[in-house]
Amino acid sequence: MSLQLAGSILIDGVAYAMVLFMITIGLSMTMGLMRVINLAHGAFAMAGGFMAAALSTSLGLPVWLGMALAIALVALAAVPIERWLLRRFYRRSELDQMLVTIGIMFICMALANIAFGSAITSVPLPEALQGSIDIGYRLVQKHRLFVVALGVAALVLLWFAVERSDFGIRVRAAVDNAPTAQAVGIDTARLYAVAFAAGAALAALGGIVGAELLPMDASYAGKYLVTFLAVVAVGGQGTLAGSFVAALLLGGVETTMKYLVPQLSSVAFFLTMFLVLLLRPQGLFGRRA
């Protein structure tokens, strides 16, 4: 394998992994914290991408402002969804949770098809992220480097939020034992709403910056649903480190195969998932029930 090919696989694989991480960490925390299977999580990434495109192209807002507003709008929209709909299903069966969230997903996909059509929608990039940088032996797209830096920054900020803040202490307490956390005065309802909105915002961010790697169309939420669930399953529900490592592993495997044997990239992705879950049914960093 040439140095240029290895470099391309590394950069593209890590960039793809960071997109997967930003989108799936909210899903992982939702499943680990709230014990709810949210199959509509990909709709937040889809909404972020479409809103960013609409705000920048249709309304003429600066690209950075359009991206920021799109993320904020998705986070705000997530709050009533969690409070008035999903909260009613926290103690219901997993089948009920799957049905209601997959129903939300199909509604979002239908609305996206009506508003934007079925063709792929281009999410504009800020001028600063366009073009390439010469690193000596090849040109690297600025966008790829930005996605990698953004994913690492998201990991560091989330680590501080979960491990070094009062909010993180409350989150870990609610994950370990929600009834006891409520008994000692932790407002788990507000905690769930904040965590759900934060996860939706991260998914929107991932959908926007990852639109070149995961193209944005009206079927986005359903098309990549199994991919997102695979990252959560391999990493282990509710674990920050698990989501990050699983995204690197699966993203790296799929990207490598796309370069070497494109026809087997999806096969390699899911074979890796099967192997991990055979050896670690709870995921790489998950805890046994």
UniProtKB/TrEMBL annotation:
Keyword Transmembrane: yes
UniProt GO BP: amino acid transport
Its membrane topology: Multi-pass membrane protein
Similarity remark: Belongs to the binding-protein-dependent transport system permease family. LivHM subfamily.
PANTHER family the record matches: ABC TRANSPORTER ATP-BINDING PROTEIN, BRANCHED-CHAIN AMINO ACID TRANSPORT SYSTEM PERMEASE PROTEIN LIVH
Gene Ontology cellular component list: plasma membrane
Keywords annotated in UniProt: Amino-acid transport, Cell membrane, Membrane, Transmembrane, Transmembrane helix, Transport
Pfam families listed in its UniProt record: BPD_transp_2
Entry GO MF terms: transmembrane transporter activity
The keyword Hydrolase belongs to this UniProt entry's keyword annotation: no
Protein name according to UniProt: Branched-chain amino acid ABC transporter permease
Subcellular location(s) per record: Cell membrane
Ranges annotated as spanning the membrane: 6-27, 39-57, 63-86, 98-123, 143-162, 191-214, 226-250, 259-279
CDD domains assigned: TM_PBP1_LivH_like
